[in-house]
Backbone:
């Protein structure tokens, strides 16, 4: 082997004439003989690594630093098919909690919003009283905002207004089971402030395991591509928190639209619970 001084002299001469120097090596010497393999020459018998696919390539963090974050759909079955309420849409989002026995407490996600707390009383087990009462606030002492009658036989009716102090001011509307041998769809007709009647459907998109109510979406009949509200239940994992509810803000539907959505949603939840307890009854 060449002495160190001979190697230095050969390198110096190569630098002067700008040529590559090949050092003789023994046959048993490996191709890579330096501490950093990046400076080794690749043996001709070694195949080059295949170029990575776009999915395998790592993103350049400097290129994606200023790029806008990708919007994600709300976690629901409807969103899988592009029907969910997107994060950039205008909507109110609530967390639904289990309250006393079968009652529900509906709280806004943003706790600073003090005007959108609701309490739902489910009382279908009591005779001659409304099956659902929607109240303002966090308990059953709040003002009545609407009620629904859910008889075991006959039509379900609901109305927005203070039923306890001014029952004659409540405008009653009907809701019916529109499913064929199932309870997957509930239809109701709502009169807007301008006197126009529109038909809406609550549609069940998934049955949650060991839960009396699956996921739901609310759509206008004939315009099913636009989801007006959606409910995502916790299923078997629920304890105090029952699920999440999103309501799209539609000014054309009037000031009471949110109350109509909450009241009809609470009615569907109660009817589904009654269905599990009384499978022999037919809710029309």
Residues:
């Amino acid at each position: 082997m060449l002495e160190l001084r001979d190697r230095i002299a050969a390198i110096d001469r190569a630098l002067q004439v700008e040529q590559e120097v090949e050092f003789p090596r023994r046959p048993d010497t490996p191709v890579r003989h330096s501490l950093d393999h990046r400076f080794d020459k690749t043996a001709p018998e070694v195949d080059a690594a295949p170029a990575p696919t776009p999915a395998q390539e790592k993103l350049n963090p400097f290129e994606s630093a200023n790029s806008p974050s990708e919007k994600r759909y709300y976690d629901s079955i409807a969103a899988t098919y592009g029907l969910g309420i997107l994060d950039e849409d205008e909507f109110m989002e609530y967390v639904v909690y289990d309250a006393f026995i079968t009652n529900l407490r509906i709280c806004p996600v943003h706790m600073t919003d003090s005007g959108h707390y609701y309490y739902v009383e489910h009382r279908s087990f009591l005779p001659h009283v409304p099956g659902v009462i929607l109240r303002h606030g966090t308990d059953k002492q709040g003002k009545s905002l609407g009620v629904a009658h859910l008889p075991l036989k006959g039509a379900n009716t609901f109305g927005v207004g203070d039923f306890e102090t001014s029952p004659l001011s409540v405008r009653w509307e009907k809701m019916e089971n529109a499913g064929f041998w199932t309870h997957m769809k509930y239809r109701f007709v709502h009169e807007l402030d301008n006197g126009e009647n529109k038909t809406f459907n609550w549609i069940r998109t998934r049955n949650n395991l060991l839960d009396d109510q699956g996921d739901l979406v609310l759509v206008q009949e004939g315009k099913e591509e636009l989801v007006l509200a959606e409910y995502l239940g916790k299923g078997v994992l629920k304890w105090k928190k029952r699920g999440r509810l999103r309501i799209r803000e539609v000014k054309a539907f009037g000031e009471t639209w949110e109350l109509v959505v909450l009241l009809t949603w609470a009615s569907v939840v109660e009817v589904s619970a009654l269905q599990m307890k009384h499978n022999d009854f037919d809710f029309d």
Q: What stands out?
A: The helical segments are 4-17, 77-80, 257-277. DSSP finds three helices and twelve strands in the chain. The first strand starts at residue 91 and ends at 98. Residues 257-277 form the longest helix (21 residues).
